[in-house]
Each structure stands twice: as structure tokens, then as C-alpha cells.
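Holo model, magnesium ion. Inputs:
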Amino acid sequence: MTAPAEARPAAAASTGTPVLELRGVSKRFGAVQALTDVDFAAYAGEIVALVGDNGAGKSTLVKTMSGVGPPSSGQVLFAGKPVSISKPTDSVALGIATVYQDLALCDNLDVVANLFLGTERLRPFRHAGVIDEIGMEQTALGLMRELSVRIPTVRVPVASLSGGQRQSVAIARSLLGDPKVVILDEPTAALGVAQTAQVLDLVVRLRERGLCVVMISHNLADVFAVADRVVVLRLGRNGGDFRVGDVSEDQVVAAITGATAGGGRRAGLPSTAALPAGGPTTTEGARA
Ligand SMILES: Nc1ncnc2c1ncn2[C@@H]1O[C@H](COP(=O)(O)OP(=O)(O)OP(=O)(O)O)[C@@H](O)[C@H]1O
Ligand SMILES: [Mg+2]
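Output:
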């Protein structure tokens, strides 16, 4: 199980050069201003949670980092150097891996095939090459063991795995390219208590490997269980940047909702409870 925030050893401080940084990023979709002048920095060896109400701009911000939706204006820096991330292959080449909420796994294929989908290994055979099933299986086994992912075998079709196991396979797949940054979009959404704990344990192990983890979450309990820092987006703008040890859940909720962060519990605001995942958006614009 995941240790509570106060019991964790102090994680790497958010100092030095951020591995990934956004400066003054804005994004417009026609009449909808989804992001306005957003700054964001993430460092190696830390878990940064990105939180905000529905429509606050979290997915849009992540898409500016993953190359799916480049910013309309603003600067992106990787390891301190300005870069252009205009398509997904640009972010992958830099070492940014993104695990989307739909996971994009092939249900009918086994774990090994899913891990190496599109990057199958070949071994020489006569004058050609054949798919190196044994080599891929060994790598898959090693990775699953290293990450303490509990699955029956790596030859089981992913359709038969639990939600938490599927999420773990998708996260493991993102590590095969040896990334520096792993972005997780709602990794515990729709998971039960035990599966959530399993996935959060895996998120902590990514940090232990020295990776920079950016985790979108609607669940402040998850955020406070594993994150070092929490960055709040509100109505497409920066709404706060807190070290988890220095802030209460109520203060984060206040930053999300725009209420004054006063410290004391405010009537009617959720505390440890999950924030609404499907409620009305806080921006006027509708998705095109
Ligand atoms: N492709 C698009 N076309 C037009 N508007 C869009 C598009 N994508 C996002 N938006 C708008 O940008 C704003 C931010 O949306 P975004 O999906 O980033 O929010 P979010 O914080 O991820 O919300 P949620 O928690 O519901 O996933 C919203 O007003 C949304 O309607
Ligand atoms: Mg979203």
C-alpha cells in the first residue's frame, strides 16, 4: 500500500533546471480560450499532480506537452532548452511518454504483444529476421517484476486483466522508450480501492527510478497520497502551485473552485472526496 504523504521520505526538491517547462502557454480553439498564459515546471524525481475542475484546461495543457495539440503561443523548454513539440513523435523523441486515459491497449493481444505493439523486436534468422518472441517475453517479465506489477502471466490477453492491471501494463509500455517524463491522464479513474493502491504504488516506483511524473487527477486523496507538488489550473489559468506537505486539501479545493484559501474547512466543499469527474464545465465554451 502507498504510504501517506507525511510518512514518505522527502522527495527531491523542485530545484535546479526543470526537465520540462512551459512558459506563458496559451491555447485557443476558435472562440474558446482554453489556456491563458500558463506557466508549468516539472522536475526529475518528483510527482506533480495537475488538478482543476472540469474544463479547467488540464487535458489541453497535457496535449501541449505531448504534441497532440501544440500551444497557440508560449514557450516549451526541455532540460532548459527551448524546443518545439508540434507532433507526438517530437515529444517521444525528447523522452516524454504519455499514458492516455483510454490506455489504447489491444484487448485480444497478450501483455507481451501489447508492450511491444509497433516496436516488435526482430532476431536474425537465415538472411532475414523473425519476431523475437522469447527476447520480448523476457524483457516483459523483467519489467513487470521490476515494477512489481502482479499479473498471472505475460501471455494472458489484456481483456482478462483488471482495470488496475491494464493501467499498469499501459504505464509499463510507456517505459520501454526510456523516457525522462511520464504523463499520466487520470490513472486511477474508475478503479476500485485495491487497484488504485496498486497503480499509486507503481507511480511511486516511477519516481524512485528518477523519472519526472505528471499526473492528472480528480481525486485529492490520490494526489495527497503520492504527489510532491500540486499544480492547480482554474478557468485555463494558473490557480496555484503548492508543495503537498505545505498545504491542506481544503486549500487546494479553494484554489480549484476560486474560493479564498483560508485554511479552515469551508462549508459545502468536499475534502478527501473525489472531485466531480463529469459535472458541468467551468468555462463557457463548449467542445467543438
Ligand atoms: N478540441 C477542442 N475544441 C474546442 N474546445 C476545446 C477542445 N478541447 C478542449 N476544449 C475546451 O477547452 C477547455 C478546457 O478543456 P480540457 O479538456 O482541457 O479541460 P480538462 O481540465 O481536461 O477537463 P476534464 O476534467 O473535464 O477532463 C474547455 O472549455 C473545453 O471545452
Ligand atoms: Mg481532461
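Helices lie at 58-66, 88-94, 111-115, 133-146, 163-175, 193-208, 220-226, 249-257. Confidence is low (pLDDT under 50) at residues 1-12, 262-288.
Archived with the compound record.
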